[in-house]
Amino acid sequence: MTAGAAPRGIPRGERLMSIGEVLTRLRAEFPDVSISKLRFLEAEGLVEPLRAPSGYRKYTEEHLQRLRYVLAAQRDRYLPLRVIREDLAALDRGERVVGLPGPPAATNLAPALLRRDQLIDRAGISAEDLKSFEEYGLIAAGPDGLYDAEALTVARVAGQLAEYGLHARHLRPYRAAADREVGLLAQAVAPMARSGTAGGRAQAVQTVHELAALCAQLHAALVRVGLRTTVGG
Questions:
Q1: How far apart, in whole angstroms, are the C-alpha atoms of residue 32 and residue 21?
Q2: One fold for both 1-109 and 113-166?
Q3: E strand map for the chain
Q4: Can you give the pTM of this predicted structure?
Q5: Which of 38, 129, 181, 200 is paired with 116 by a 20 to 30 Å CA distance?
Q6: 107-117: pLDDT as tens digits
Q7: Which CATH number fits domain 1-109: 2.60.40.2230, 3.40.50.720, 1.10.1660.10, 1.10.240.10?
Q8: Distance between CA atoms of residues 56 and 8, nearest Å
């Protein structure tokens, strides 16, 4: 690329990154990410890097942010690419997306909360489904009657499980298991939360996310091992 040249559509002066630079920045949070993974996400239309006159891919901070969301959604929330693509499309339309910063003018807003009708629409469930999830303790609205990002995740996953014949009444053991897990893991984060410092609270929040992700991975692995005997795999 010649000196001063930049891919079209990017204001002069905005820093662009090569795919190698993006990979280095992502690996601090996603150690297993690879160049082939980034190219796969590009082929799926989830992130579309710019092209320099030389043909090399160039990424902006916005591209990096989108990649972080996609990778975290797959790793921590097991969201399928279809759902992730819908979230990103909503962002491109200027909508606020739970778990992903919105348009530049909205980046300082608090995380979006959803009304009941919005939750139903975003999760792809019916009003009857949501009522059942609430009756069995899987989802609860906040004091203001709104739902957060975790409620959206539960609604989506529970709705997808219902398609396999696993309805809210079948999922009660997950609620009980989660409550027991909370009691166990709280012992690890309580000292940080009690520190009274901003750093301690931030460390507690980060630890909560890490522990939740590790427990989800452990649970998924144990379930896969247990089901092998059923399917003969």
A1: 15
A2: yes
A3: 50-51, 57-58
A4: 0.54
A5: 181
A6: 333 356 889 99
A7: 1.10.1660.10
A8: 13
